[in-house]
What does this fold into?
Amino acid sequence: MNDAIQALSAAAAAAAIADGGLARDELFEHYRARAAADQLNAFTWVADQPAAPVDGPLGGVPLAVKDLFCTEAVPSQAGSRILEGYCPPYTATAVTNLEQAGAALLGKTNQDEFAMGSSNENSAYGPVLNPWDRSRVPGGSSGGSAAAVAAGLAPWALGTDTGGSIRQPAALCGIVGLKPTYGAVSRYGMIAFASSLDSAGPLTRDVTDAALFYSQLVGRDSADATSVGFPEPIELPSSERLDGVTLAVPTALVDGEGVEVGVRESFEASLETARQLGATITSCEIPSARFALSAYYVIAPAEASSNLARFDGVRYGFRAEEKSLDAMYTETRHDGFGAEVKRRILIGTYALSSGYYDAYYGRAQRVRTVVARELAEIFREADFIVTPTSPTVAFALGERTADPLAMYFSDLFTIPMSLAGTPAISIPSGLSNGLPVGLQICGPAFSENKILSAARALEQAIGFDGSVAWGATSG
Amino acid sequence: MIDRDELLHVARLARLALHEDELEATAAELSTILDHVAVIEELDLTGVEPTAHIGEVADSLRADEPRPSLAREVALARAPAVRDDGFLVPSPQGE
It folds into this structure.
């Protein structure tokens, strides 16, 4: 391994390429060799060579892309058997934006099937291992993206977040993950899970890389009617202080049942750091938080049950050979989908079915209104809401696979922001028993510049060293 | 609690086959999840409007002008079965 190249952040690598100190091909080959030797099962496909070079702010830096994104002529399987070998005829706008800014596609990363999961154990292509401890999960659903960046197999990665799928794996792998404001990034070509919640964002080594990546990712897209773009340029953060900044802590939630002691200790240490940087810490309440989790697990499956109707064995993907059309549909879906996806399709179909719609889906949508209102109310008084990103550190492989509800609990702190469509970042706050803990910083819609600025100041003061995890794979 | 008949009805709506040996465990799992999400019944939602979508999406219509789309052979290239210029599927009546 070339330690000098490995040590460069993506922003530093782009700068080195721009000023001639580093060759694009050398950088690409460094990461291609590491990705090809991946022992974490983080990648489902690795490029043989870089695409034709494009000049731009991302300057030739290799890019790992979650397999949920369509990439033309490259396998895009969404972690599902039903899309095994599927190579789409077009590329997602989010990927195109990054490529046009100079990023070079390095590989596709493993994930929970159709982004449904919090451990990456729901992939038809096998679980991903956490580079900090290979007996543990990397989180999910963007587990391959998070593990690849944390292990230094990719400089940065594109992921998706529907209920926490960027933030939670970023936390469990000790890296930075940004879930954007809903609508800031196009969803065109991102294989749909829950359309009113899905958002695409960066998983990176540090906050500056996240800002650079995100600055090229946002934009209105005529192919996605829900995309609105971003109202201002995304700036690279330089802040070192938090003077005049108010951070609100939802105390009852953070002190609640199921939050590990080590996570709480790391969180409290971050608050102390924030105070030393000049921030004011206040307490707030999100009374609807425990209802938010339940509402999410109605809304997301309901939308998924509709979106996943397209996988019917007719136009692409896996088909079960049956003699009648109806048996072909139902057996294709039986054999092609994994257990969690089927569970959610059934829950979603049930929640939308005649006689249950008002009690489940209708009510869940009204809970969503309450959650969004409560967050907006807090943002009237405070700049940010801060929480641990995940109630626990990375858990053992297999520990929660038999209990869907225990798995859903992983998303306790991330789901309110998903329902409200507001942005949030996870940055490493430290270690608990040798495993990374994430700090979540959430702001109102389109406050990404402020979030990145505050996150950068905290990151500098915390001084987390993620390079420990680079040695987890050879190459 | 979701029973066998209800589960089969929902699976039918979802066009998802469930095999005999999967019914009991699936019904139990779904019941556990539905019991859990039922806590949303406890919240007073009087006068609260539903949110289907966050943010305003207005005036997103484009001009109605013809544009190139996927060529037929490209669209058909990934299909499990094709005949002539269309997708081939089994007969609705069986063979």
